[in-house]
Prior knowledge:
Blueprint: H1 15-25, H2 30-37, H3 41-49, H4 58-71, H5 100-135, H6 153-157, H7 181-187, E1 193-197, E2 201-207, E3 212-218, E4 223-226, E5 231-237, E6 242-246, E7 249-250, E8 257-258, E9 261-266, E10 272-274
Antiparallel strand pairs: 1-4, 1-6, 2-3, 2-5, 5-9, 6-7, 8-9, 9-10
Helix pairs in contact: 2-3
Amino acid sequence: MSSSNQTMPATSPxxxxxxxxxxxxxxxxxxxxxTRLRMQLRVIDALEAEDWARLGAPVFIRGQLRSYLRLLKLxxxxxxxxxxxxxxxxxxxxxxxxxxxxxxxxxxxxxxVYVVITALIAVPVWVATRSxxxxxxxxxxxxxxxxxxIQTPAEASRPARPTPVTASLGALPKRAPAVPAATEFxxxxxxxxxxxxxxxxxxxxxxxxxxxxxxxxxxxxxxxxFEAGTVSRVKLGNxxxxxxxxxxxxxxxxxxxxxxxxxxxxxxxxxxxxASE
Length: 277
């Protein structure tokens, strides 16, 4: 796959006009072509007008051009003339996705810190107050003789002395370190949606609530992981360079591909199905 940062040969003049002339010679309307290729009408119009800026990333433009040229039986090499310099992909705003388990852990940690601070203040005060209360009355101790220390009558007749009490923070029970949310997510990674990229690609992910989770150009060697039930729709450019697994099983994307672009939906149980335009 050609990187979107490399400069390709100059745009072939008249490729849009050749598409329009070939379509008219074949007796097809724009709506007929859009139906056969399963593309939107605005995409067909933009291809014939050579308005590449309306079509997004270069990888999409070349794939759509090849599909149109193949339909009209024109040389697919005309699609290689699209220059990256004439294409301005939309600016993407990165979004940070926080898993629900991470949010729950943050709240739990906040409450734990509050409890610890309260204990550090309240326990020494309670111990010091109790020592004064205990000094105001004699304490009778019943001994079962299990430790070998038997009190003699002479010792019992002595007046009770106050026992010094030292408030120590070291007596507080140690709390086990909280398990990071990332460990929990790694343990469940096999049950979610995983995408591994062997080539540069463009993705668009829609969450189960209908909001856009991510839209970005992804470089080769990277991967994306999503928890089960958090993704409802996915769109992949250069789909042949992406390996998708759901529930730990690698999925066949050929049934979702059109012009090397895969569109599919993800059900709550992780099943993949073709998505409409």
